[in-house]
Design a protein that fits this description.
Layout: H1 2-30, H2 33-56, H3 65-93, H4 98-121, H5 128-168, H6 175-204, H7 212-233, H8 237-249
Length: 250
């Protein structure tokens, strides 16, 4: 079960890399901002953020200048990636809404405060056992912000999907676009669930990779999000044909 959880999280990271690169390539061709925002956001979190922060906290790196630098850099990449997720949602779904712009500013300020707070808390101890009680609240805050980012985009995508569904009945919408909105919404909600389980484990002092129930939920959510990302942005031709056939049948 532990291996399955690790493989699921690895698959989520790899799919984030693949989808992020694909979106960046698309953004370069089309010069469209949303693709660049989401592609760069996924790559910052999957390629730079989490791996660099993890390396900076390895036993041989903890408390050293290179380790602290890598941890700070990885955490900054993660925070910037989360901010770009929110910027993508604001740009695509609420482009002219003042409240969305103000919300984006609040999220950016919160991410900056979390970055500074976690770095400061990481200096309060020489071992991970000493550091964790101080960093745990900041880690949960970052997870909450990440969950908000994907929850927001999930809600907006699902609302847009429902509008497209009504238009599909009249032949006024593209079934592929509607399906992509649904997949992106499901991926967002799955990521929210993953963050919630990890935060709950942190609050209770459990190690999620050592307990079957949280590990199973995390693995399932990670696999579901990975599959939805791939089907939304790198779908195979048979899948697209099946979506079109189903729309015609309905």
């Amino acid at each position: 079960m532990r291996l399955l959880g690790i493989l699921s999280l690895s698959a989520m990271a790899l799919s984030g890399v693949g989808v992020g690169l694909r979106l960046l390539a698309l953004g370069r061709r089309t010069r469209e901002q949303p693709e660049l925002l989401m592609g760069l956001g996924l790559l910052l979190v999957a390629v730079l953020g989490a791996p660099l922060a993890a390396v900076g906290r390895l036993p041989g790196m903890l408390g050293t200048a290179p380790g602290d630098f890598l941890f700070a850099l990885g955490l900054a990449a993660t925070q910037l990636g989360i901010a770009l997720f929110c910027a993508f949602t604001s740009r695509v779904f609420r482009r002219d809404a003042l409240w969305a712009t103000l919300l984006l500013v609040v999220v950016a300020a919160a991410l900056g405060a979390e970055w500074l707070g976690l770095l400061h808390a990481s200096e309060r101890g020489a071992t991970m056992e000493q550091i964790l009680p101080h960093t745990r609240p900041w880690g949960i805050a970052i997870l909450a912000t990440l969950a908000f980012a994907f929850g927001w985009t999930g809600c907006e995508s699902f609302a847009y999907y429902r509008r497209l569904r009504r238009q599909l009945a009249l032949g006024l919408a593209d079934p592929i676009v509607a399906n992509r909105m649904l997949l992106w919404a499901v991926a967002g909600f799955a990521t929210v669930g993953l963050c919630a389980v990890i935060a709950a484990c942190m609050l209770s002092g459990l190690a999620p990779l050592r307990h079957v129930l949280p590990l199973g939920v995390i693995g399932t959510a990670a696999l579901l999000a990975s599959l939805c990302w791939l089907l939304a942005f790198a779908p195979p031709a048979p899948y697209l044909e099946a979506v079109r056939r189903r729309a015609l049948a309905q």
